[in-house]
């Protein structure tokens, strides 16, 4: 049996360039954009309600027909009914 000679030095692999950012990381960093920060300051609370699957479907279809998201449509509805700053 022969062992490694003490005179030889181990060869190291070279380190390559840093990999480019993956699309997911780029998407996450977009949340720091000023546009999103301003939008988040307007709507800061989350409201969860339970509705039937049929009602959820109708809400989503109507929102799609109007060209808005269900959240936007429901915010407008709640603002009309309960907005105005009166307690």
From TrEMBL:
Disordered: annotated span: 1-31
InterPro entries, alphabetized: RHH_dom-containing, Ribbon_hlx_hlx
Residue ranges, compositional bias (Polar residues): 1-11
Protein name from the UniProt record: Chromosome partitioning protein ParB
Organism, as annotated: Variovorax ginsengisoli
């Amino acid at each position: 049996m022969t062992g490694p000679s003490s005179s030889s030095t181990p060869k190291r692999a070279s380190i390559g360039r840093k990999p480019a950012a993956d699309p997911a990381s780029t998407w996450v960093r977009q949340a720091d954009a000023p546009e999103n920060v301003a939008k988040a300051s307007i709507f800061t609370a989350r409201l969860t309600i339970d509705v039937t699957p049929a009602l959820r479907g109708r809400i989503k279809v109507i929102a799609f027909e109007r060209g808005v998201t269900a959240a936007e449509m429901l915010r407008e509805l709640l603002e009309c009914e309960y907005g105005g700053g009166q307690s």
